[in-house]
Amino acid sequence: MNLVLVAEQTLNGLQLGVMLFLLAAGLTLVFGIMNLVNLAHGALYMVGAYLTTWFYQNTGSFALAVALGLAGTLVVGIVVELVALRTLYERDHLDQVLATFGLILFFNELVAILWGRSAIYSTLPPYLSGHVELFGTMRYPLYRLVIIGIGMAVAVLLWFVVSRTRLGMLIRAGASNRAMVAALGVDIRLLYTIVFGFGAALAGLAGLLAGPIFAVQPGMGELILIQVFVVIVIGGIGSIRGAFAGALIVGMVDTMGRAFLKPVLSALISPAAGDAAGPALASMLIYLLMAAVLAFRPEGLFPSRGS
Amino acid sequence: MTARTGILVALLLLLAAVPPVAALLNEPFYLDLLRRVMIFAIAAISLNLILGYGGMVSFGHAAYLGIGAYAVGVLDHHGISNGWLQWGIAVGASALIAAAIGSISVRTSGIYFIMITLAFTQMLYYLGVSLAEYGGDDGLRLKMRSQLSGLIDLNDATAFYYLVFAILVLFLYVTHRLVNSRFGQVLQAVRSNEARTRAIGISPYPYRLAAFVISGAMCGLAGALLANQTSFLTPEFMNWTRSGELMFMVILGGIATTAGPLLGAAALLLMEDLLQGWSVLPKWVHEHWQLYLGVILVLVVLFARRGLAGLLPGKNE
């Protein structure tokens, strides 16, 4: 097998991985701290992608569109938290799942009303398009490298905020004992809103980064959301470290499976078997991985220490 | 007979009276609509067994609708139209796959259970999409409906209707008996307090797994019926939104009640039908009915916690 192809797919896997991480970090924080199952997290990803694409088409400046798209998703996230989700923290998971499922239907239809049902394609500004030469022989899209860079930077920033700042201390404390944090005089509702808004902004960031690569369409959030669930189940729910490890593993396994499973099966068994089973197995691979992880470590790879 | 049972019986009598009334009004559409309602009610009854009585929030129940439908579709595709065989395989395959998924997921609880059941169903969905032989994304049209040795002709709308009705009544009765048996009592005990159930010497795992398998098998039959209802099947039968709808039916109707799933399936499907097609409503409602459905869903969860069955007289089970 050709090394350039392997290197290229490794980078693709890394890029999918950091994208999943941006979503998983917010979802896992919201779950760890508020004990809330938020299916509508994917809807925020979609909102981020739409807002940025729309702002870019109307302002012509990509940087401005990114800033407005992020701020817009943050606002939408905070409004959703204040209006609907706040009352759900004390409810059981079933109610949370159903109410946020309702929110998904609402948001998917809302963007269909505003921007239509068919996919819209976002373009890249000239300074982000094009390819770069890597290792002398390989050309790789610049934008995908930028995504990897941003994802890694966010991971470092998150680590810093959570483990080195006062806000991070409150977040960790809130995750391990909410009642105690509230008793110590911290405004827990405000903390929840901040964390939720933070998670929403990360989802929006993932969405706006995804815009130029994937089709921006209603329902785009749910396609990736279910993969994000796999990520946090593998990583351990409530743990950012787990989300990071899980995201990279899932991104890598999924990309490699899609790229190499068919040729490998063809070579090992028979071309017919590769053609028949390759694509099917590739799309099921991350779920099989999840099942395997759960069979050996039901708590995930990096269970959070809280509660 | 309590007031509640009375209402359930009245509801069933009403359903039984639909074919002659529809024939009288010359509106065969109602027959089709209510048959669909009953098929989804059967699926919701099966989900209620684990969701309501077992406390297991399965977000992947559409998987068994899909497996049941594919059992019929795949056999039909290969020229086997014997309904007994098709439906037997639908139920058997659903039970087997439920056993496989259950053996991993039933060990977990809470959020893990929700996500794992969802993820496995998504896996089956992608498997369906990648089966090019059986239509892939586009799905598969049945060559003919299941042949039940000439006893019941499923192309006869009324006969098919009463067959679904009979299965519905049977399933209502069976779940009622099951829930009130020792098995059902243990299942509910585990839901209320797992630690205490363990303390009196009962291991929850086999009970929960058995309930999960029974529920999957029941839903598999609903899938076989659904494939016959539409004469068509696609991976969309296993779409995660379908699982969400089934959950919503149970909650809307009243969780852990006998009549709940039937009420919920009827309310949701009739509401969808009205939002989409009722000529009294303006066009902007028809076009974006999911927007309103989403809002209704959120409001029901936030404010109507006991569901429609909670409005009925008598105490909640």
Description:
The complex is a heterodimer of chains A (307) and B (317). Chain A has one domain (3-218). Chain A contains eleven helices and two strands. Chain A has helices at 3-34, 41-59, 62-85, 93-115, 142-164, 166-176, 178-183, 188-210, 220-235, 240-268, 271-296; strands at 131-134, 138-141. Chain A has a two-stranded antiparallel sheet. Chain B is built from 14 helices and two strands; from the N terminus they run ααααααβααααβαααα. Chain B has 317 residues and is mostly helical. Classes of the chains: A mainly alpha (307), B mainly alpha (317). Chain A binds chain B through residues 31, 37, 84, 87-88, 91, 93-95, 97-99, 101-110, 112-113, 222, 226, 229-230, 232-233, 237, 279-280, 283-284, 287-288, 290-291, 294-295, 298, and chain B through 51, 57, 59, 104, 107-108, 110-112, 114-116, 118-120, 122-123, 126-127, 129-131, 240-241, 244, 247-248, 251, 255, 288, 290-291, 293-298, 300-302, 305.
At a glance:
The complex is a heterodimer of chains A (307) and B (317). Chain A is built from 11 helices and 2 strands.
Give the helix/strand layout.
The complex is a heterodimer of chains A (307) and B (317).
Chain A (H helix, E strand, L loop, with lengths): L2 H32 L6 H19 L2 H24 L7 H23 L15 E4 L3 E4 H23 L1 H11 L1 H6 L4 H23 L9 H16 L4 H29 L2 H26 L11
Antiparallel strand pairs in A: 1-2
Helix pairs in contact in A: 1-5, 1-6, 1-8, 1-9, 1-10, 2-3, 2-4, 2-8, 2-9, 3-8, 5-6, 9-10, 9-11, 10-11
Chain B lengths: L2 H14 L1 H8 L2 H26 L8 H16 L5 H23 L4 H21 L9 E2 L15 H24 L1 H11 L1 H6 L4 H27 L1 E2 L6 H14 L6 H18 L5 H5 L1 H15 L14
Antiparallel strand pairs in B: 1-2
CATH class term of chain B: Mainly Alpha
First-last Cα distance of chain B: 15 Å
Task: Give the overall pLDDT of chain B as a whole number.
Answer: 88
Q: For the CA atoms, what is the radius of gyration of chain A? A: 20 Å
Overall geometric form of chain A:
globular
Backbone CA Rg of chain B: 19 Å
Q: Write down the oligomeric state.
A: heterodimer
Uncertain regions of chain B: pLDDT < 50 for 5+ in a row? none
Q: Can you tell me the number of structural domains of chain B? A: 1
The succession of helices and strands of chain B, N to C, reads HHHHHHEHHHHEHHHH
User: Main beta sheet of chain A: strand number and arrangement?
Assistant: 2 strands, antiparallel
Q: Identify the most extensive interface between protein chains.
A: A-B, 42 and 42 residues
Shape of chain B: globular
Strand order of the largest sheet of chain B: 1-2
